[in-house]
Fold this sequence. Notes:
By secondary structure, this protein is mostly helical. It has two domains: 3-96, DNA polymerase, domain 1, CATH 1.10.150.130; 121-298, Orthogonal Bundle (hpI Integrase, Chain A), CATH 1.10.443.10. It contains 13 helices and three strands, in the order αααααααβββαααααα. α2 (28-47) packs across α4 and α6 (136-151) runs antiparallel to α8. It starts with a helix and ends with a helix.
Amino acid sequence: xxxxxxxxxxxxxxxxxxxxxxxxxxxxxxxxxxxxxxxxxxxxxxxxxxxxxxxxxxxxxxxxxxxxxxxxxxxxxxxxxxxxxxxxxxxxxxxxxxxxxxxxxxxxxxxxxxxxxxxxxxxxxxxxxxxxxxxxxxxxxxxxxxxxxxxxxxxxxxxxxxxxxxxxxxxxxxxxxxxxxxxxxxxxxxxxxxxxxxxxxxxxxxxxxxxxxxxxxxxxxxxxxxxxxxxxxxxxxxxxxxxxxxxxxxxxxxxxxxxxxxxxxxxxxxxxxxxxxxxxxxxxxxxxxxxxxxxxxxxxxx
Length: 302
């Protein structure tokens, strides 16, 4: 392959990336990654003495994907390469008048399910104890953390809870989740006690007329998802917790710890409000890890 052809391909890739940035508002980071992916593929073709990039067939693409697997590129990285290649050929068909698109039936590799970050049971106890419950706002936060860990609610579900959704006598909360689907979730004794203490002492002190919302700000409205996430980070710092946190960390801890203590996956599905069991199965890694730890600790030949 001549240097002239290489220069032509480099120029075509540069114009493609520039067009992405100008017309499709693709970020500079993604544009740069696309350029790198396409040039790596071009070098592979050159090393294999194959045809230059705009003339490739499905065979060359499949060979390159096999090469990437052998080189242990991640499925996520290969999925990005395929995305870049598909967009490139959409551009090339217009730019070069190509009739055939070799990427038309190309499927992105299946992404492995992301393992959610969680906290140890000790971490959770320290996080729950972090608020200064002598202060009304922090008593509210303690109640919110307790309810979140006891029920596995999504943060959005928690901050949007209304008083009508609580049944103190039955120790249940009626949750309106995704798709307006309702589910009943037990509160548990500890969460119920903190919730009652907050409603009796802190809520009237925060605002005299809090309306229908359970957890309110000093303006009487509901706490925002972002504001509560900010509060969690404050308490994590106080508790000296340095592991990765997300707004759903306590939801993941709820699911993880239930499985650790023998909960059934179907029950967990109902409590979390997942419409499909496959979504809940992400937590089965917890059970496997737990078994491995028990085996390692207790088996004489582990």
